[in-house]
Design goal:
432 residues; 14 helices; four-stranded mixed β-sheet; 25% strand; alpha+beta; binds ligand EPZ
Length: 432
C-alpha cells in the first residue's frame, strides 16, 4: 500500500496529456465477449479498474494482450459464463459483464455487488432490463444466476430509476440487445459520452444501434458480431480534475491536450461562471485554464449527462474550499458522496454536510495534514487541496486513486508539483 506526500504551494504550469476514459473502457472491454474474433482497443488507461477487467476476461478464458495503451482481446467459444466473488468484489463496474455474457452465452453467474463508500449501488434496473428480454433471474449463494435458454427477445424497456437514468444499466441492455431477436428500444437511456462510445464500438462490430446519446436508443438484433479496432474517447473526468488543478491559486495556467470540448461543457461552464479562464483551441482538443483575477463561489446540483457530473463534485469542493464566499454542492445521484469533506476539514476547510448537500465557506488557506483517501474522486479532491495547502500533506490508501487516474503523480510532477509516492508502512490515520 502506498501513500502520496505532497509539498503544497508549488507553482503549477505546463502541459499534460489526458488519458483515455476509464468509464468508456470498462464496458467496451466487456463487450469484447460478444464476438469470437479479435478486437483491438487503443488508449485504454493503465489503471487498476481496467486491469481488474482484463484479469476477469482472461480468467473467463479470453486471450488478453496489452502493449502500452492498446489491448487485444479474443474470446473463443467455450469461455466461462461465471465470474467469481473474488474477481468481482474488487470492482463494482464488473456488473457490465452481464449484458455481453447473456447475449453470447444466454446465461451468467455474477456475484451481487456490495455497496461502496459513495453509497448503495443497486442493480435492480439491470435485472429489470434483462428480465424484460426474457431472462430468468435467481439469487443463489450471493450470486445472481441469470438464464435465457430460449435466447433473448427484443422489447421496449424504460430504464429510468428513482435517481434518473443508469449508465452501466443502459450499457448492459444495449449489449444484451445487440444479438437478441428483433428490436429493442431503450427509453430513459443514459446520454453519457461513454455510452455513445460503447455504441460506436458495438456498431463497428456489426451491431445496428441508433440514437445513442439521446434518451431513446433503438437496437436491431443481428446474428453475429465481428472483430474491430477502436480508440477510446478522452477521460472527461480526469480532464475536469486537471482543469480544477489549473484554476487553483498556485497555478500560473496549464494546458490539457487530448480533451473533447463537447464532453466537458458543464465542467467548463461552471469554472467560467466562477470567474476562471478556460480557453479551448479551435477544434476543442486542447484547453488552457488558469485562475481568474476574482474567483467567485458557485453552486453545483449534480445531474445525469449533460448535467454536472457527480464524478466532479468532490474535486470542485476542494476549489470551493479556497474560494471566497459560500458555495453549495448537492449530489442528487449519490447523496452520500461526501467522504472527502471530513478529510478536507482536517486541512482547515469550512464545510457543513447535511442531507446530500455540502455548504462550503471559503477560507484564506488550507494546511497540510495526514488524510485518508476513501474513494476515487474523493482522493482526487484531497490531492487538489494538498497542492494548494501550506505545508506537507500525506494521502494514505493511494490505491483509491490508482483505480482511475493513470500516472497521476507523474503528470502532476510534470506540472511542477512536488509529489512523492512512498510505501505506506503505518497505514495512515486510524479508521474506527
Ligand atoms: C457510472 O456508474 C460511473 N461508473 C460512475 O463513475 C458514475 O458516478 C455513475 O455512472 C453516474 O454517472 C462507470 O461508468 C464505470 P448509475 P453506474 O447506474 O453506471 C441508481 C467513477 O468515479 N441505480 O448511472 O454504476 C444508482 O444508485 C464512478 O468513475 C439504481 O437505482 O451508475 C445511482 O443513484 C463512480 N438501480 C443512479 O442510479 C440500478 O440498477 C445512477 O447510477 C442502477 C443504478
Amino acid at each position: 500500500m502506498d501513500k502520496l506526500i505532497v509539498e503544497g504551494g508549488q507553482n503549477l504550469s505546463g502541459t499534460v496529456n489526458i488519458s483515455g476514459s476509464k468509464n468508456a473502457s470498462l464496458p467496451i472491454l466487456a463487450a469484447a465477449l460478444l464476438t469470437d474474433e479479435p478486437v483491438r482497443i487503443s488508449r485504454v488507461p493503465d489503471v487498476s479498474d481496467t486491469n481488474y477487467m482484463l484479469q476477469i476476461l482472461s480468467q473467463l478464458g479470453a486471450s488478453v494482450e496489452r502493449s502500452s495503451g492498446t489491448v487485444r482481446i479474443e474470446s473463443p467459444d467455450g469461455i466461462s459464463s461465471s465470474a467469481s466473488y473474488e474477481q468481482v468484489r474488487k470492482m463494482r463496474a464488473s456488473i457490465c459483464l452481464l449484458g455481453p455474457m447473456m447475449a453470447r452465452m444466454k446465461r451468467c453467474t455474477l456475484p451481487l455487488p456490495g455497496g461502496c463508500v459513495i453509497g448503495d449501488r443497486p442493480v435492480d434496473l439491470h435485472l429489470r432490463a434483462i428480465q424484460a428480454l426474457g431472462a430468468r433471474v435467481r439469487v443463489k449463494g450471493g450470486n445472481m444466476v441469470i438464464e435465457a435458454p430460449n435466447g433473448l427477445v427484443g422489447t421496449t424497456v424504460d430504464m429510468r430509476g428513482d435517481s434518473g437514468p443508469t449508465v452501466l444499466g443502459t450499457d448492459n441492455l444495449m449489449m444484451a440487445a445487440v444479438l437478441a431477436k428483433g428490436k429493442t428500444v431503450i427509453e430513459s437511456a443514459a446520454r453519457e459520452p461513454e455510452v455513445v462510445d460503447l455504441a460506436n464500438f458495438l456498431n463497428k462490430m456489426g451491431a445496428r444501434i441508433e440514437g445513442a446519446g439521446s434518451r431513446t436508443i433503438t437496437i436491431h438484433g443481428v446474428e453475429k458480431l465481428h472483430g474491430c479496432e477502436h480508440t477510446v474517447i478522452p477521460d472527461r473526468i480526469e480532464a475536469g480534475t486537471f482543469m480544477v488543478a489549473g484554476t487553483l491559486n498556485v497555478s500560473q495556467g496549464i494546458t490539457l491536450n487530448r480533451v473533447c470540448r463537447e464532453h466537458m461543457k458543464s465542467i467548463s461552464d461552471l469554472l467560467v461562471e466562477c470567474g476562471h479562464v478556460v480557453e479551448y483551441n479551435e477544434d476543442g482538443t486542447s484547453v488552457f485554464v488558469k485562475p481568474g483575477e476574482r474567483p467567485r463561489s458557485g453552486k453545483i446540483l449534480t445531474n445525469p449527462y449533460p448535467g454536472y457530473p457527480t464524478d466532479m463534485q468532490a474535486q470542485m469542493t476542494a476549489l470551493f474550499a479556497l474560494t471566497p464566499g459560500i458555495s453549495v454542492v448537492k449530489d442528487t445521484i449519490f447523496p452520500q458522496r461526501f467522504m472527502h469533506c471530513s478529510e478536507l476539514k482536517r486541512m482547515g476547510a469550512n464545510i457543513k454536510v447535511d442531507n446530500g448537500t455540502a455548504i462550503i465557506t471559503g477560507v484564506e488557506g488550507l494546511s497540510g495534514a495526514p488524510v485518508m483517501a476513501s474513494d476515487l474522486r474523493a482522493s482526487a479532491a484531497l490531492v487538489l487541496a494538498a497542492l494548494a495547502a501550506e505545508g506537507t500533506t500525506e494521502i494514505h490508501r493511494l490505491y483509491h486513486i490508482d483505480r482511475g487516474y493513470e500516472m497521476l503523480d507523474d503528470k502532476l510532477e510534470l506540472l511542477g508539483a512536488k509529489v512523492k509516492r512512498v510505501p505506506d508502512l503505518e497505514g495512515g490515520p486510524q479508521e474506527d
